[in-house]
Amino acid sequence: MDLAFGLDTYAERTARVMKRLAAARIDALIVNMPDNLHYLTGFDSLGYLWYQALLLSPGLDAPTFVTRTTEEPCTWETSCVRRAKFYDIARQDPIKRVAGLLAEAGVGDGRIGVETSAFTMLPRQWDRLRDLLPEATFVDASTLVAEERLIKSPAEIAYQRAAGQMADAGLTAGLGALCPGISEVEVAGVIAQALGEAGSEYAAIPPMVASGPRSAMIHAMPSGRSLALGDVVAIELAGVCRRYHAVIMRTAVVGRPSTRLREVAACLAEGFDAALAAARPDAAAGAPDQACNARLARLDLVPARAHRIGYSLGIAYPPTWLEAMVLDESDSHRLAVGMSFTLEPNLSLPAEGFGVKLGETALCTAEGGESLSALDHHLIVVD
After folding, report:
1. 3-state DSSP call for residue 369?
2. Which residue spans of the chain are classified as CATH 3.40.350.10?
3. How far is 346 from 365, CA to CA, in rounded Å?
4. What distance in Å separates the CA atoms of residue 63 and residue 48, rounded to the nearest whole number?
């Protein structure tokens, strides 16, 4: 059995989630999100492309995992699951299996928590579940497990620190490959190889490399475009250790940077540093964002901000690495020791022909915000 933590850790996590169920007066919880499944059981597979669920309820003898027969070897090898029900995708309806298990547990007419924001619960499956359990009251429990994941244990932080070192290695290799004539996809390949050599697992999002005018496309994936002298190159990637992610983003220029690019990049670095300093225990989730904007206002760059400054980060699977907390004024969370999150005040200036990415994973400690990257925040100039 290959687990990132001891069996007692998974038992404690499940016990805390069960307490949350009781406090919310929920009789059963259907967990569909792969990151939540991994958090509670260790299960590690891309099998979530087909329906699978972990059922938690006081009415069940044990947490019960429902997945297709193909996942049976992974279930016993990568998870602490001891009760599993496997279905044949060609002959059996998994939603009917879930509904039957809940009915057998005596909660078929109870309050059932569902992760309604889960991309792994299709609309037709949701409709089928409600049809099969017409007496049940369904409750949105999208953040019930996710809230437990926000504060990382020392062991989780150790994995994330290792992921940060892997991310630094990948970025350093990518920057070292930049030169006129190399394509974005070739740079991404160099990064991928370096990540693998550093021990990184696959990331929820592949390395992003965007050059020239494409650097203003904040989420552009690498293309066949070849770099030219004077190009701005924006890079984003993640290192991954036991599914714990650490993200890093930097911007380089091939050749001499313009005065405008230098001043924008320098102002963005000031904003990032201010955000990191504001990531203190008990600070409002939006405090880093506000601190950054106060610096960016010097050059009227706030309108060029591409998105919120960050979000909680930890376990992740494709297609995303976002957790439940976002770092903006709309979020009511307060930062606490053990929280990890991205800080990424990226700028998009398409009218000027470039964008600037600067970001990384940070940790809230008793002393304040701490970066998980050893790399500095300046614009990288490739001579």
Report:
1. strand
2. 7-148
3. 24
4. 18
Cite the residue boundaries of each domain of the chain with CATH code 3.90.230.10: 154-382
- Residue 111 near residue 139 (C-beta atoms within 8 A): yes
Model pLDDT for residues 247-303, shown as the tens digit of each residue: 999 999 999 999 999 999 999 999 999 999 999 999 999 999 999 999 999 999 999
The third-level CATH classification (topology) of the domain covering 154-382 is: Creatine Amidinohydrolase (3.90.230)
Give every CB contact of residue 37 below 8 A, 6+ residues apart in sequence: 31, 43, 48, 52, 54, 65
Nearest Cα neighbor of 171 from 194, 148, 144 is: 194
3.20.20.70, 3.40.350.10, 3.40.630.30, 3.40.50.300: which CATH number matches 7-148?
A: 3.40.350.10
Burial of 185 (C-beta count, 10 Å sphere; 0-12/13-18/19+) = middle
Instruction: Give the pLDDT confidence of 37-62 residue by residue, as tens digits.
Output: 999 999 999 999 999 999 999 999 99
DSSP 86-115: EE-TTT--HHHHHHHHHHHTT-TTSEEEE-
Q: Model confidence over 156-209: pLDDT tens digits?
A: 999 999 999 999 999 999 999 999 999 999 999 999 999 999 999 999 999 999
State the alpha helices, DSSP H only, in the chain.
7-23, 34-41, 72-78, 94-104, 123-132, 144-148, 154-177, 184-197, 259-278, 287-296
Positive or negative, the CA dihedral 374, 362, 268, 212 is positive
- Residue 244's DSSP bridge partners are 241, 315
* Long-range contacts, stretch 116-122, CB < 8 angstroms, 24+ apart: 116/140, 116/141, 116/142, 117/142, 118/32, 118/33, 118/142, 119/33, 119/319, 120/32, 120/33, 120/34, 120/48, 120/51, 120/52, 121/32, 121/51, 122/51
Residue 80, token pair as written in the block: 């602490």
